[in-house]
Amino acid sequence: MFTSPTSYDATVAQDTRRRRADAERNIEAILDAALRLFTVSTNVSMTEIAHAAGVGRVTLYAHFPSREDLVDVVVERSLAESAELIRRWSSHSSREG
Fold this sequence. Notes:
Blueprint: H1 5-18, H2 21-40, H3 46-53, H4 57-63, H5 67-96
């Protein structure tokens, strides 16, 4: 069933609010570890990522059911962080110039 982007965004926001603090920390640790390891090798295993994040494989797969899901979120997060840095730099540069 197709849902509009607005209803999807609202559902994601609601799920995020309900997520426990430890689950949020686990997700951040998984994403950080995945990015670190992917920059060294794209052949890193999900088990290696879980170990580097300090979580079990069950926890990793609970948040990211597939490697593709994890890679998608790592890339989205990296792009969002890069866009924010560019926005800040651009804003700072325009005030100086």
